[in-house]
Amino acid sequence: MHNGNLRRFSSWTIQEIRYYLQDQTELDGTTMRELQEDGRKGVRDLVARYQKEKNARSRAAERWQRLTQKERALQRAGFHLIAGVDEAGRGPLAGPVVAAAVVLHPGDALLWQQVNDSKRLTPRQRREQFELILRHARAVGIAAVEAEQIDRMNIHRASLAAMVQAVQGLKIQPDYLLIDGFPLPGVEISQEAITGGDALCLSIAAASIIAKVTRDEIMKTYSDLYHGYGFEKHKGYPTAAHKAAIKELGLTPIHRRSFSAD
Q1: Taking the mean position of all CA atoms in its chain, how far away is CA 224?
Q2: What are the residues whose beta carbons fall under 8 Å from the beta carbon of 159, sequence distance 6 or more?
Q3: pLDDT tier at 249 (50, 70, 90 boundaries)?
């Protein structure tokens, strides 16, 4: 490899420049300009890719700082077993509401850097993160409240009940809860409810993934039991196809009678 303060990249091969860029975390302005002005398109493409990857790393680092701000503050305050809590399935016409509570290993940025609000991930990304969380989290609790109970309790109370059960299902007792939306009544653990927490807090985002993927799998199972409703596609949400199926086939035992399909 070439040395010296004045790098004469014009005499380097594209392969040498590729290896050089792979070792750099930051390029000074002179070096960047020299490479960007190189007459070879292959070199300019390498620099553009380097800049794109650098920007992506910077955005990931900023996102990580934002998503872990709450956990890091709690850790400094002495709380170390922090559980994120969230639910999936408040709005569907059919199926359960599913909740999850997740305690992550604190501070492991490389392990959790792809965790995000489940709504911002593709189904494939959610599945990958679901499996990662189950393998590496310190503890995961999952609970479901079925349609019959939802009708009896109302969806708000049923969601809270599912989240309480998910916390109770953790194999270790957390010393702090970060909850999406509403505080959990009757739980004697320090806690904070955060509106939109699945997009703001890493632990809650992890719980949102576990709850969403678990519920989706449940609805796929129901699609095998109740043919013609398309549960594997709409997961029980009030789509036009789902409403048409209800009109044609009627309600199943997993439909919420207190919800209107009109």
Answers
A1: 27
A2: 87, 90, 97, 99, 145, 182
A3: very high
The pLDDT, as a whole number, for residue 22 is 86
Q: Which two tokens stand for residue 160?
A: 């809270």
DSSP bridge partners of 99: 87, 143
- pTM value? 0.81
Q: How far is CA 6 from CA 15, 22, 29, 169, in A?
A: 19, 19, 13, 62
Q: Of 185, 180, 207, 206, nearest to 195 (Cα)?
A: 180
What's the pLDDT at 251? 97
Average pLDDT over residues 229-248: 96
Angle, vertex CA 195, rays to CA 89 and CA 97, nearest 5: 15
Strands (E) across 58-204 are located at 82-88, 97-103, 139-145, 176-180, 191-194
Percentage above 70 pLDDT, the chain: 95
> What structural domains and CATH numbers belong to the chain?
9-65 (no CATH), 69-215 (3.30.420.10)
Residue 89 has which token pair? 């399935």
Question: Cα–Cα distance between 100 and 43 in angstroms, integer?
Answer: 48
Q: Are 109 and 64 in contact (CB under 8 A)?
A: yes
Separation in Å, CA 157 to CA 7, 66, 77: 67, 30, 31
